[in-house]
Structures are given as structure tokens and as C-alpha cells.
From TrEMBL:
A Pfam family: TEX47
Domain BLUF per the UniProt entry, residue ranges: 55-153
Domain of life: Eukaryota
GO function term, MF aspect, one: FAD binding
Originating species: Anopheles sinensis
Ranges annotated as spanning the membrane: none
Protein name: BLUF domain-containing protein
Length: 279
């Protein structure tokens, strides 16, 4: 009979897999006794994505004073550099920033705290004449970019203008949807270009291949005029900081163990007798 090896160390206790990755039929679905919250599903999504941090994606548009694309790029990068030098969050800002002839379309991805700091600094700057936050996507499963990518273009004024039917009851939703489809397509095209190892030189300018997927001035101005969307300062003020809430546990000592009302057994003149027995 073989004897176990004395030099072998016992296996460390492994963390249990999320319920949908377990093979046992008993664990295929969460049981009634072990109820799962939305936070559990968020953690499962993060585990599948190989992340430990909660990530967020935001798409916003802006109109700027008439400056060159490279000048605007330098001002944004200076702002981001200042944030990264003072932040305590190790997660950097990722995404795609595109400038079209004085207009901006930005898609940024990062930890929620990092984006909050960025939006607060952006709101305090004088970079925008107008701005709107078009998309806020929480708990994204996959990032487009692993760094911050900048592109500029000067063909916006040459694009044909969209004809928007102001009488269409679904005009706002359809315009936002079409805009986001184009933004996602631009992100995918730029990402493929960034990952293409055959191109040793990555141009900072978009060429004519991107024109088809670029929202025109009519669409950008329509989005900038929508009151139903937050401006960058409004978004920063609404989501940027958590209120300092003091609970009863911070004011009462010792901490109560039982929250049963003191008058629970007192019956008033108009109370209903729920025992159905006796007076």
C-alpha cells in the first residue's frame, strides 16, 4: 500500500466560484435561503472580466472656443496630468477623445472615483462653451482602451447635415441612439488602428475613412441643446460627491440592539384587535 508523500503541503483553501460557474446542480441557481443581491451579480461580472474595481463609461459632447485641435488637446492633457498627480486613486483615465473643428466627442472609461474627480475638475475649467453628458454606463464588462487616446479632425464642416424632423415624438431617443452607434463604431475603428502592429506610426488625425461614422454639426448642436441631458457641471455636482450623512449610530451610545417600538404593546381606543380572541 502506498504512503502519502510527507513533503507535500496541503492545498490552500480556494475561494468558491460564483453560482453560475459551479457544475453542481444543487448550486446551479441561488437557493431561497442564500438570497443574492444586485451587489453579488456586480461582483460576478467583475470576476468574469478579471477586474477588482468597479468601472464606468461616460460619453459627453462639448463645444469649445475657436482654437486649434492641438491647442485643445494640450489643455485637456494638462488638466488630466494635474488630476493624476494629486489623486490617491491608482487607476488612470482611459478612453478616446476626439476634437472636430471646435466640437468634442469624448468616451472615457475608468474607476467611478477617477471619473468623478475628472468631471469635477472639468466642470471648474473654462474649456466649454456648452456641454452635455449623453451616456453613463455603470459596471462595464470590457474596456475599449487601455490608455487615453486622442484624435483630431478638420472635416466636420464638410459633412452633409442631418435633417431632423422636429415633429417626430421619438426624435430625441432616435438621435441619441444613432449618435451612440457612431461613437462606438469610431471607438472600435480607432482601437483596431491602435492594435495594428503593422503601423509603426499612429496618426493623431482622422482621415476620410472615419467620415461615415462621424456625427455631423446638426446632430452635435441638437444634443447640446437638450435640456433632458446633464451638462458637465450639472453632472459633476450631482454625481461628483457623496453627502456626509450622520446616522443614529454616530450619535447614540450604547448602540441599540433592538429597534422594537417602546409602545408596541399599548392598545389605543381606535386600534384594531388582530388576535381575534377576546376584547
Amino acid at each position: 500500500m502506498s504512503t502519502p508523500s510527507t513533503g507535500r503541503t496541503p492545498d490552500k483553501k480556494k475561494k468558491p466560484l460564483p453560482y453560475f460557474m459551479q457544475k453542481s446542480e444543487d448550486c446551479a441557481m441561488p437557493s431561497f435561503q442564500n438570497r443574492r443581491t444586485l451587489a453579488d451579480h456586480v461582483k460576478d461580472n467583475m470576476l468574469c472580466a478579471g477586474r477588482k474595481s468597479y468601472f464606468q463609461r461616460i460619453v459627453y459632447v462639448g463645444r469649445h472656443p475657436k482654437v486649434t485641435g492641438m491647442t485643445l488637446r494640450d489643455r485637456f492633457l494638462k488638466l488630466i496630468k494635474e488630476i493624476q498627480e494629486h489623486t490617491t486613486n491608482e487607476i488612470k483615465l482611459f478612453g478616446l477623445m476626439i476634437n472636430f473643428d471646435g466640437y468634442t466627442v469624448h468616451m472615457i472609461e475608468s474607476a467611478e472615483d477617477t471619473i468623478g474627480e475628472y468631471m469635477q475638475h472639468l466642470a471648474a475649467s473654462d474649456l466649454f462653451e456648452a456641454s452635455r453628458v449623453v451616456l453613463v454606463y455603470n459596471n462595464i464588462n470590457q474596456r475599449f482602451f487601455r490608455k487615453l487616446v486622442w484624435r483630431a479632425s478638420d472635416y466636420l464642416n464638410e459633412l452633409p447635415r442631418s435633417e431632423l424632423d422636429q415633429q417626430d415624438p421619438r426624435l430625441t431617443q432616435n438621435t441619441i441612439n444613432a449618435f451612440l452607434v457612431k461613437v462606438y463604431r469610431l471607438c472600435k475603428m480607432v482601437r483596431e488602428e491602435e492594435l495594428d502592429e503593422r503601423k509603426s506610426f499612429k496618426s493623431l488625425y482622422l482621415d476620410e475613412n472615419y467620415e461615415e461614422h462621424t456625427p455631423d454639426i446638426t446632430v452635435l448642436e441638437y444634443l447640446l441643446g437638450l435640456d433632458c441631458l446633464f451638462t458637465v457641471p450639472e453632472y459633476a455636482a450631482f454625481y461628483g460627491k457623496l453627502p456626509d450623512v450622520t446616522s443614529f449610530r454616530d450619535r447614540i451610545w450604547p448602540i441599540p440592539k433592538d429597534l422594537t417600538p417602546y409602545d408596541v404593546f399599548e392598545a389605543g381606543k381606535y386600534d384594531v384587535n388582530l388576535t381575534f380572541g377576546g376584547n
